[in-house]
Write a structure and sequence with these properties.
Layout (H helix, E strand, L loop, with lengths): L30 E5 L2 E4 L4 E4 L2 H4 L8 H13 L10 H14 L5 E5 L2 H16 L3 E5 L8 H5 L16 E4 L4 H8 L4 E7 L12 H13 L3 E5 L23 E4 L10 E5 L18 H16 L2 H15 L8 E5 L2 E5 L5 H9 L3 E2 L8 E4 L7 H19 L1
Parallel strand pairs: 3-13, 5-6, 5-7, 7-8, 8-9
Antiparallel strand pairs: 1-2, 2-3, 4-10, 9-10, 11-12, 12-14
Helix pairs in contact: 2-8, 3-8, 6-7, 9-11, 10-11
The structure holds pyridoxal-5'-phosphate.
Pyridoxal-5'-phosphate binds next to α4.
């Protein structure tokens, strides 16, 4: 019999190390450094970042003013709870109001996109006392309880989340929305400015305007999820601003902190705040506000939204050189390039051989392009050459 050494509590003494809970399929690439739109891996290989780590990097990796502001804030005060005065939160709200043109809204700060949507849905339900939500086919709103329930992906909805009552409708059918709203039990309609992971579909201006009108008529809250499409990515500060509407609640995250976890909700004046209604430990920390302020300062100083529009126009022209492209979906630097075949092997070739990061979507025929908002036209040229070469090589 083989003796296994034991510890004092009689457990076998095995040399184990803690593993990561294996939920992410990983590319075999280890980035260690990044600057603007370039990522360098541990072997010194440089990649062009056309995906911003799921649309998070807005002002470019390691932007010097951003880094300096965060370092300085960390030297002074990184965190204290939401029980003291924090002038950085006030500064962030003022700058955000001014740059987005949404001064009349108030800001509640949290730490992620799901948390922003969770709070938005909760706020709606507190406000009108109702609980059913209308969401749209192919939507993605996050993985917390209410946020995942309004996400159209059964695989990530656990039984505990399934108790929320949600009705999924197709985009751009106002009659169906009205039929549901008429039943009187709908607390909120939640919609992405432009769908992200779903595959870059979006409502028409007429649809968004109809939603605004119907929500007001039937006392439901219109929540615009701008977690991915906000912060200039669509060519306006918020994607809904292409449609001339004013939602009741706007949710933010991703580009807001350029990689620092910060999210928020903008709340229209029709809602009344009361102490304790919403809350979080980490949301609005000094360090996260420093990140949020630095991002807004750089967006403004470098006129990044103008750059988004310039590069978008350039991209639309340049992509015409690639006849295999069936369609370009989305707006600004939130784009989906559609083919008539599944793009898995193409995306892999682009990253492994051409050293370009792009993204995937639920729509398997779509390559997602979400570069930092600082991207230059030359990078688009690089992408087009790589795309043409890759398509030719895959055909050969
Ligand atoms: N909403 C949208 C539109 C998103 O794209 C995402 C994330 O991809 C979320 C919400 C959830 O954000 P987070 O992953 O920060 O919780």
């Amino acid at each position: 019999m083989k003796l296994i050494p034991t510890t004092s509590n009689n457990q076998p003494k095995t040399k184990k190390k803690m593993n990561l809970f294996d939920v992410y399929p990983l590319y075999d690439i280890t980035p260690v450094k990044a600057l603007d739109c370039t990522i360098t891996d541990k072997n010194g290989v440089e990649y062009l970042d056309l995906y911003s780590g799921h649309g998070v990097i807005s002002i470019g990796h390691t932007q010097p003013d951003y880094v300096a502001k965060l370092k300085n804030q960390l030297d002074n005060l990184g965190f204290y709870s939401n029980a003291i005065q924090n002038p950085l939160q006030v500064e962030l709200a003022e700058k955000l109001g001014k740059l987005s043109g949404c001064e009349e809204y108030s800001l509640f700060l949290c730490s992620s996109g799901a948390e922003a949507n969770e709070n938005a849905l909760k706020l709606a339900s507190f406000h009108n006392g109702k609980s059913r939500v209308i969401a749209f086919d192919n939507s993605f709103h996050g993985r917390t309880s209410a946020a995942v329930a309004v996400t159209d992906n059964k695989k990530i909805v656990a039984p505990i989340n399934a108790q929320q009552v949600v009705t999924f409708l197709p985009l751009n059918n106002l009659d169906l929305v009205e039929t549901e709203l008429k039943k009187g039990d709908v607390t909120a309609v939640i919609i992405e400015g432009i769908q992200g992971v779903g595959g870059l579909d979006e409502g028409t201006a007429e649809f968004f305007q109809g939603l605004e009108k119907l929500c007001a008529q039937y006392e439901a809250v219109l929540i615009l999820d701008e977690v991915q499409s906000g912060y200039g990515r669509s060519g306006k500060f918020f994607a809904f601003q292409h449609h001339n509407i004013k939602p009741d609640v706007i949710t933010l995250a991703k580009g807001m902190g350029n990689g620092f976890p910060i999210g928020g909700i903008l709340i229209s004046p029709k809602f009344t705040a009361s102490h304790g209604l919403l809350g979080t430990t980490f949301g609005g920390s000094h360090l996260s506000c420093a990140a949020g302020i630095a991002v807004l300062d750089v967006i403004e100083k470098q006129k990044l939204i103008d750059n988004v529009n310039d590069v978008y126009a350039y991209f639309l022209e340049a992509i015409k050189q690639v006849p295999e492209v069936v369609k370009v979906k989305g707006k600004g630097l939130m784009l989906g390039v559609e083919f008539d075949f599944e793009v898995g092997p193409l995306r892999k070739k682009l990253i492994v051989e051409k050293l370009i990061f792009t993204g995937s979507a639920n729509n398997k025929k779509l390559l997602r392009i979400l570069p930092p908002l600082t991207i230059k036209k030359e990078a688009i040229d690089t992408f087009i050459v790589a795309l043409k070469e890759s398509l030719a090589e895959l055909k050969a």
